[in-house]
Design goal:
Blueprint lengths: L9 H19 L9 H20 L1 H14 L7 H26 L13 E5 L2 E9 L5 H7 L3 H21 L12 H7 L2 H11 L4 H22 L5 H9 L15 H16 L10 E6 L12 H10 L1 H9 L4 H11 L2 E7 L7 H8 L12 E5 H4 L14 E5 L8 H5 L1
Parallel strand pairs: 2-3, 3-4, 5-6
Antiparallel strand pairs: 1-2, 4-5
Helix pairs in contact: 1-2, 2-3, 2-4, 3-4, 5-9, 6-7, 11-12, 11-13, 11-14
């Protein structure tokens, strides 16, 4: 059996980690503009980080990944030499593809190949294909946008923290331990003059705008500290620690920017729908993973995100495609007709269910070995030519109108 973990990736990891850390420091100091290559660097860093930890500390999972590759290497879109060479730098994407291959193989036979798309399988006489995309670091793009204003909002957060410390001294039993859990009550405990000073500092007009601004800043910094602490500048970490900033879970930190996550999903969907295999008459599935190595639990509330994504699906696609070439837009619209469904993964526990149950006590919905969500195109789901629900092993199934006939094409073409 091939061992995918023979290479030592520590030197590569150190180099890319220092590169990103330096970039974030320069962004924090507002010395450089946002880099379009950031996402690729973050994905590479996350893959190398996970690769080294699987290699050194999670031998049981590393062995399982080797087994999955031995089983499914003939089903992937790359040959053995290319896969092994790229594995340390792309391991998270590659492991996700292997996990989806394993999920499908429980019910269907995968086709043997070594070219795109990622996976192909048959249901009765109908050929289906799958395109996988792992975006574990997508939300750090949003954090990157906040960095130039870090000090400005930190100064305000420090005012909230100091006020909270004062309130704790006065009412020890009734105050929450962390100031970020009491933003609204702290705000209204301030004098009108104190609130006015903060509004002027942030150039905001209303109380609600200030509260949202501070909560948003708290969420993105906590998200970054929780999952990406190793690549954050020491100066930022020191300042956050000075206000006893909790470095734990993102839960309770003011909510998630679901519109940003919906745009991330829409961008991925458009990128995939534009591919040549979506222009044919075979149904396709887009599998998207937002899972990160650092936690088996969900970092984003999938129900909230999926509901918002479906509610704004066409308006978000319109927004994403508006500045794209006309040829791209028409390929996306054509590809929508063949989109069977969108599979969303928010936890890598889905990839190794039996192992994580033993090692981490993972719980899945009763009767299932995963917590994937699948958004079906209800047009194809109800078409007798498309075999109905082909994934009974997925617990969360949602039928939605994903057909291009509902897309406001005139808005895109303006």
């Amino acid at each position: 059996m091939i061992n995918l973990f023979e290479e030592d990736g520590q030197q590569q990891l150190n180099q890319i980690q220092q590169k990103i850390k330096t970039y974030f420091f320069n962004r924090y100091k507002d010395c450089v503009k946002s880099d379009k290559k950031l996402q690729n660097d973050l994905n590479r860093w996350h893959s190398l980080f996970a690769y080294q930890l699987f290699k050194s500390k999670n031998i049981q999972i590393a062995d399982r990944i080797n087994q999955l590759y031995e089983t499914h290497k003939k089903h992937l879109d790359s040959n053995e030499t290319a896969f092994i060479k790229s594995f340390p730098n792309q391991c998270w994407q590659n492991i996700f593809e292997l996990a989806i291959a394993e999920l499908i193989s429980k019910n269907f036979t995968l086709n043997e190949k070594n070219e795109p798309p990622d996976l192909i399988f048959s249901v009765t006489e109908k050929l289906y294909f799958v395109e996988c995309s792992s975006r574990s670091t997508s939300f750090m793009d949003k954090y990157d946008q906040h960095l130039p204003d870090f000090d400005l909002i930190f100064d305000v957060a420090k005012i909230f923290f100091d006020k909270h410390e004062h309130l704790k001294e006065k009412n020890a039993s009734s105050e929450c331990w962390y100031f970020d859990s009491s933003i609204q009550s702290i705000w209204w405990s301030m004098t009108s003059n104190e609130r006015l000073i903060i509004k002027n500092k942030l150039t905001l007009n209303t109380d609600s705008e200030v509260i949202v601004k501070i909560r948003d800043w708290i969420f993105w910094n906590r998200y970054a500290c929780f999952s990406f602490k190793e690549i954050l500048p020491d100066e930022i970490l020191s300042k956050l620690e000075s206000i006893c900033f909790p470095m734990g879970s993102t839960s309770g930190s003011g909510g998630v920017d679901v519109s940003f996550i919906a745009r991330c999903l829409a961008v991925i969907v458009c990128e995939k729908l534009e591919k040549s295999y979506f222009q044919k008459n075979n149904p396709g599935i887009i599998a998207i993973s937002f899972s990160m190595f650092f936690s088996g639990v969900e970092i984003i509330p999938v129900d909230l995100v999926v509901n918002y994504f479906l509610k704004t699906f066409f308006s978000t696609l319109t927004f994403v495609m508006k500045d794209k070439p006309m040829s791209f837009q028409h390929k996306v619209l054509s590809g929508l007709k063949n989109l069977y469904g969108i599979l969303i993964d928010t936890s890598w526990y889905n990839w190794f269910p039996d192992i994580v149950k033993t090692l981490y006590g993972a719980n899945f919905p009763a009767g299932y070995n995963n917590c994937y969500t699948l958004i079906y195109n209800e047009t194809l789901l109800n078409d007798p030519n498309y075999n109905g629900n082909i994934f009974p092993q997925i617990p969360y199934l949602i039928a939605a109108p994903l057909s291009s006939s509902d897309l406001p094409i005139s808005e895109i073409e303006q």
